Amino acid sequence: MAHKAQSALPISAPTSLLTPIKVPQRLLMGPGPSNASPRVLAASALPLLGHLHKEFLDVMDEIKEGLRYIFQTNNSLTIAISGTGHAAMEAAIANVVERNDKVLVAVNGLWGARVFDLSSRYGAKVTTIKKPVGQVFTLEEIEEGLIRDKPKLFFITHAESSATVLQPLEGIGRLCHKHNCLLLVDTVASLGGIPIKVDELEIDIVYSGAQKCLSSPPGASPISFSPRAWDKVKNRKTKVESFYFDLIQLANYWGVDDQPRRYHHTGPISSFYALREGISILCNEGLENSWRRHKENSELLWNELQKLGLELYVKKKIARLPTVTAVNVPNGINWKEVATFIMQKYNLEISGGLGETAGKVWRIGLMGYNCTKENVQLITAAMYDALQQQRQGSVKSSL
Ligand SMILES: Cc1ncc(COP(=O)(O)O)c(C=O)c1O
């Protein structure tokens, strides 16, 4: 039993905090976070170690090695940033961009817009190539932008989770290098679930998040820098403006340089345990098997939803994300009531759209631990039930 401590302080402890935390168990099938695997959750409950203890540094080394496998890269500078996907996004920009550098951003949804904002904050001269939300870029469109703006960095999103489109990456790295530019790719909603081979694709900087296909809680985010990108960081004329994301310091803490490892910040111990375990689960399954599982289950989901009479937001199958699917909200159906019904009755989260898709679609995620045939069947049954409810409701109200 928790007791309220006697205190003469003018501000007392909130009564809500006098008992242990309680949260409901939910199935998270929106665009993320997804449920973490129980094995990952058990790892994150292991005893804390010091952030420079040998055993903890060994865990960090395992993360580096595992990420090289998952990214399919030999980049020695492959680490995890302490923070969520945005932290890795910011670390990429903060290190590679100097004031007045030209940055070209491909915008076809929320994430390009976010990188536009971030790069401007770091003083870059940012330009864009744009496509309507839900469409992807061709190599010709990208090359036109590279020739027009002569950027030092080009950004594109692999898995645009707001519009649920999959950007083909083949050939973009080669184009960027032909035009003397580095390629930065966001793989937050794809890494581990959709094929990506960083070295083969000549990607210079790539980052991701833990809470999607890596079956881990948000908090530690993979990132990798090619030797070309690392050289650019080492040859900066000015210091990295962020202390926390300074790659030279992080490389030392992660044991990538030749110096003894020093304190830079306290690594988020439990988040690194969790990420290590999420990576280990992927290593056990094998990347190709994980990619196949995501493809098969998403195709099953698309078929099941179409059998219910629903339309998918991205028409071309090849451009559809296997990890997050957007479904058009039919006329006369209230998307929010459907999502709320499913949450209340099934304890299951699906989400609405984001940015331009807000109010027009539902987004259903099938990622990592949650990407199973059983979950496809469950969400199909829940959608059927919710749509029946809605239709009966509208019949009643028109009587
Ligand atoms: C494609 C993409 N990029 C970046 C992010 C940002 O990651 P976080 O919310 O972990 O900061 C997300 C999050 O959903 C995402 O889907």
| Count of discrete domains | 2
Ligands in the model, by name, code or SMILES, are:
pyridoxal-5'-phosphate
Number of separate strands: 14
* Proportion of residues in helical segments: 25-40%
- The CATH superfamily of the largest domain turns out to be Type I PLP-dependent aspartate aminotransferase-like (Major domain)
Uncertain runs with pLDDT below 50, 5 residues or more? none
Specify Rg, calculated over alpha carbons. Answer: 23 Å
Mean pLDDT: 96
**Strand order of the main beta sheet, please?**
2-10-9-8-5-3-4
User: In what range is the share of β-strand residues?
Assistant: 5-15%
What is the structural class? Answer: alpha/beta
CATH class identity of the largest domain: Alpha Beta
CATH architecture level-2 label of the largest domain: 3-Layer(aba) Sandwich
Q: How does the overall form come out from the CA principal axes? A: globular
Modified residues (N6-(pyridoxal phosphate)lysine): 212
Cofactor: pyridoxal 5'-phosphate
InterPro entries: Aminotrans_V_dom (IPR000192), Aminotrans_V_PyrdxlP_BS (IPR020578), PyrdxlP-dep_Trfase (IPR015424), PyrdxlP-dep_Trfase_major (IPR015421), PyrdxlP-dep_Trfase_small (IPR015422), SP_NH2Trfase/AEP_transaminase (IPR024169)
Binding site for substrate: 363
